[in-house]
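Hey team,

Filing this mostly as a record. A colleague (T.K.) asked me to run one chain through the structure pipeline before their review meeting, and I want the input and output archived in the tracker in case anyone asks later how it was produced. No errors, nothing strange. Just documentation.

Input sequence:
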Amino acid sequence: PDEFRCIESTNCKDALQEKIREKQTLEAESKIIPKKRTLSRKGRLSDHIKIKKEETETEVKIIREIKENEKKIMKIIDVVSLYSKKYNDIRDILSRKVDSVSINKTGNCKDMITVTGIITQKTDNGFTVEDETGSLNVIYSGNGDIENDDVVAVSGRIKNNSLFAENVILPDIPLDNVQKTLPVRISFDFGKSENIRIEDREIPLKIASFFSVRTGKDDMKVLFYRTKDVLNEKCLVNFLRKRCISTEDKFTPCFFVIKDVPDVFIVSSAGEEFRENYKSVTIISAGTKNEINFK
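Output structure:
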């Protein structure tokens, strides 16, 4: 090796020894095994590694709401607009489930057809359904809790200018809906305030409000309805089946179409307190209770 060629020189010897010591030091350092971190009695790493915990805040966002109708007298054009909007909104929901034809195109149909319209009148042997193109008499022996002003899809066959219905389809909640709730506290006291409190957030509440509650990456959609009427379980389920909350005072009707499916449907009314599940939607009748705790 080159290191030994100048072995006779004293300077070379010193330089050689110094170089050998450097190599030995480097080799020794490369074989050192890092010290394993161990847990102290307090359960923390001995090298004091700190993990910062992110604080999660509750965010509330109002998506849709409906106020009390302040108009004591409505013009005919206002009433027509009100019903037209309800029809269009629910027709859009039904269009995801069925393919419909316009009523004015049903005259020459011999096969099974489906029409979507609003029920304008119930008859002894069925009802009359109407869309923007016309009206049609429907022969239907079933009940299905259908009423005037309901928007439905009807499947059947045309005979003698009437539709003999084999199936009446409501907009309803999808079967693949997934149940979801968040560990939050919702409180309200309408005797003292018109607001609703969600954790540390307070929002004004109308007759019906649809809002989302987000905690971290998770969210929950809530439909809140306030009324002085006595509502039972069947009535609340029908609101979801028909995807519409219908209220009416002595002056004018009022509709709140449930366009998006809520995770929780809370009703503050004069009825009894109960909790029910309908197609993965949690229905809560608060009764006289003024707090809903999901924690």
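Quick notes for T.K.: Residues 15 and 169 are 98 Å apart (CA to CA). The two ends are 78 Å apart (CA to CA).
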